[in-house]
Design a protein that fits this description.
The chain is of the alpha/beta class. The protein has ten helices and five strands. Helix 4 packs across helix 6 and helix 8 crosses helix 9 (184-198).
């Protein structure tokens, strides 16, 4: 066991057993991922999370008994640090917006490539945001619509814009700190300031905002693709 990296523990939540079986088969091709439980609806997911405390919940939105959106809210209430990646067929704007607003860390459609699914699970487990660029504009359009009558957005400092640019690439706090020659603690402080000034609630929304506004780091400074 000495020195061996712990596998990322995943809880699969979908009302279709065949799909869960297929996703499990994909994840088990990677030795750093392990499925520790399966649930057929949101209520089972909340109960199993309380019992198993997995590293990540991979969950659909449309399910019987309790849907994914309500499950996200209950999981967040249970554990504010829970990591949730949505995997669904739904491209409905309302679903996209509600999932991110409720606290999902990422959103993928079920036609995603298996390698991208595995990569996205790793990113979310590390605390990064996963949001396809095509979906970012739609999510941010909803966020802007909702806050149109709200407070004005406070301008970001130059350093905050740099950090926000790296968030748009899916960079981790460690990667951002290394690129900007600052500490991870300072990066976390900058991200909190960014969220407060832009009236956003999480890193995923910040990444979507950066993509929507075209805020990116210099080409030569972008972290390598994972």
């Amino acid at each position: 066991m000495g020195g061996q990296k712990m596998a990322i523990q995943v809880l699969l939540v979908d009302d279709h057993a065949l799909l869960r079986q297929g996703v499990r088969s994909i994840l088990e091709t990677s030795d750093d991922l392990t499925v520790v439980g399966e649930a057929g609806n949101g209520k089972q997911a909340v109960d199993l999370y309380a019992e198993l405390h997995p590293d990540l919940v991979l969950m659909d939105i449309r399910m019987p008994v309790m849907g994914g959106l309500e499950a996200i809210r209950q999981l967040r209430a249970l554990d504010p640090h829970v990591k949730i990646l949505i995997l669904t067929v739904s491209e409905e704007d309302d679903d996209l917006f509600e999932a991110i607003r409720a606290g999902a860390n990422g959103y993928l459609l079920k036609n995603v490539d298996p390698d991208e699914l595995i990569s996205s699970i790793r990113k979310v487990a590390r605390g990064e945001a996963v949001i396809p660029g095509l979906l970012a504009a739609r999510i941010m359009a909803e966020l802007h619509k909702e806050s149109a009558a709200g407070e004005m957005v406070e301008p970001l400092t130059g350093r905050e814009l740099e950090v926000l640019g790296y968030l748009s690439t899916g960079a981790s706090n460690r990667e951002i700190a290394k690129r900007l020659f600052i500490s991870e603690h300072t990066v976390r402080n900058h991200i909190q300031n960014i969220l407060g000034k832009l009236h956003l609630t999480n890193r995923v929304q910040a990444a979507a905002y950066a993509i929507r506004q075209g805020i990116r780091p210099p080409e030569s400074a972008r972290p390598p693709e994972k």
